[in-house]
Amino acid sequence: MTITRKTTRRADALRCGSRPRLLAGLVAALLILTSCWGGSSDSSGSAPPTSPGAATTGPGQPSSPSGVPGQLSAAWEAEAAPLGILMGVAEGLVVLPDLADDTSRMRLLSWTDGSEQWAVDITKDLGAADFLEEGPTMPPGQVAIWAHEAEAEPSLLVYDVTDGTLISRIQGKNGHHLAVGESGAIYEMAYSEEESGKVTITRSPSAKEFDTKQWTIEQGEEAAELFWVREHEGFVDFCVDGREGPVHRYTCYMSLHVADGTPVAEDGMFLRSAWVGEILVGLEEGGPLKAFDKGGKELWSTDVPAGYPLGWGEHLLFFAQGDEMDLVALDPRTGQTLWDRTWAEQEWSEPLIDQTPSPEDGPLVMVQAHPGVKTGVMDPATGEVTLVDHGLTEFREAERGPGGTLLISSGNYEALTWTVVRPGEAGDVWPDVLAGHEQFEMLAGRLVARKGDRITLLQAG
Q1: Which stretches of sequence are listed as region Disordered (predicted)?
Q2: Would you say 161 and 91 are in contact if contact means Cβ atoms under 8 Å apart?
Q3: What residues pair up with 301 in beta bridges, in sequence order?
Q4: What does the alpha-carbon distance between residue 347 and residue 366 come to, in Å, rounded to a whole number?
């Protein structure tokens, strides 16, 4: 079982047997990931826990409680077309039409009990689209989808989550890439029509005001990435998924002032960069690692091997890549080494970190995969971590679960078993928690499982 891909086509069903992210030949891994901890929002507002296998008579009518403390259980079940995309937003679960079934109703289900809050027919919005794809993350109150049609660029459709009305339709253009900031601003990147080897970046205040351009800048062609952005305290970071390096999830390569699009640092572009509080740390091709204050003044520079900087609150961690994996903590104000740890190659694989790592997500969670699965919580101030053995073997991958838990898959790829653990805590290992479900995914911090035309919200009791 693997996480579903969030697309739906008329003739291409979701494949729950697709290969998980980690390779089958992996014999050892030491992963780092962020995990919600303690009082997270994953289960807030949910109905009382119920038995995953028990029947329900409809949304808002859960079955009897499971009676197992801490066990994952079904808060509610609801009906959805097998190929319809599910999208999680703060306001509820958005269910997109299943074009393979010639349906065109978009729905919003309540996180509390699964009841339908509204349903709208979006046939006219879709036009000749033959498959849909989840759009970029929008600010609260909005949700976006890509509508694809043959021999045409996809359109971005933005809806009001309150009632499902269409806010804006942005027609895609060949060679143009769009990203949405936390404020709802739209960033568009395209090859410059005026100068070869350049890309043009524009900022619009919102999807509704897409034709209003607040500023336009030009950057070198190396900036032309399939990108996403992260806005914070007057700055916007440009990031890309899957770039080569010790961290494959994402890397950020440019930080601009939101007000006018000017680069924070004179260097402009980096191979990889990260913010540590109000300090921007960037790694250039082949080094060195440099730090700048938010006004662009260089604070320090130091030679480092190939690797990746991570800002975790006021802590600067650097993952060095080589025959052995080094994790080094630096003083973000001076660049001096505070502590370092080295793992042999057979004990370590790439770190697994969320796209927006932050202490707000919880502590840094360590998962060691060989010879048995162990988890622990790392103190970024000291690098200390105590690993707890959960008695699991044949590790495959780890996912964040609801309520500060981890979902860990083990066994062979033909028959994966998913187990829930609390990182760094012995006991309370709940095996085979997804038995009876065909697919699952984490949506807005909540675990949603599917089987056929039934969707189930699972929560940690």
Answers
A1: 41-72
A2: yes
A3: 290
A4: 12
Please state the three-class secondary structure of the chain as a single string: CCECCCEEECCCCCCCCCCCCCCCCCCCCEEEEECCCCCCCCCCCCCCCECCCCCCCCCCCCCCCCCCCCCEEEEEEEECCCCCCEEEECCEEEECCCHHHCCCEEEEECCCCCCEEEEEECHHHHCCCCEEEECCCCCCCEEEEEEECCCCCCEEEEEECCCCCEEEEEECCCCEEEEECCCCCEEEEEECCCCCCEEEEEEECCCCCCCCCCEEEEEEHHHCCCEEEEEECCEEEEEEECCCCCCCCEEEEEEEECCCCCECCCCCEEEEEEEECCEEEEECCCCCEEEEECCCCEEEEECCCCEEEEEECCEEEEEECCCCEEEEEECCCCCCEEEEEEECHHHCCCCCCCCCCCHHHCCEEEEECCCCCEEEEECCCCCCCCCEECCCCCEEEEEECHHHCEEEEECCCCCCEEEEECCCCCCCCECCCCCCCCEEEEECCEEEEEECCEEEEEEEC
Domain 72-354 has CATH 1.10.3470: no
β-pairing, 337-343 with 298-302? Answer: unpaired
Judge if the upstream peptide bond of residue 371 is cis by omega within 30 degrees of 0. Answer: yes
Mean pLDDT of the chain: 78
Residue 426: pLDDT band (50, 70, 90) is confident
- Extract the tokens encoding 362: 């919880």
Instruction: Give the Cα separation of 232 and 215 in Å (integer).
Output: 18
Of the candidates 247, 273, 274, which has an alpha carbon nearest to the alpha carbon of residue 351?
247
First to last CA, the chain: 23
**388-389 β-sheet, strand order:** 30-34, 364-368, 374-378, 388-389
Residue 54 has pLDDT above 50, yes or no: no
pLDDT, average across residues 386-391: 87
Question: What per-residue confidence (pLDDT) applies to 371?
Answer: 77
Best mean pLDDT range from 227-241, 290-304, 313-327, 360-374: 290-304
Name the residue ranges covered by the structural domains of the chain: 72-354
From residue 437, alpha-carbon distances to 16, 138, 453 in Å are 10, 29, 11
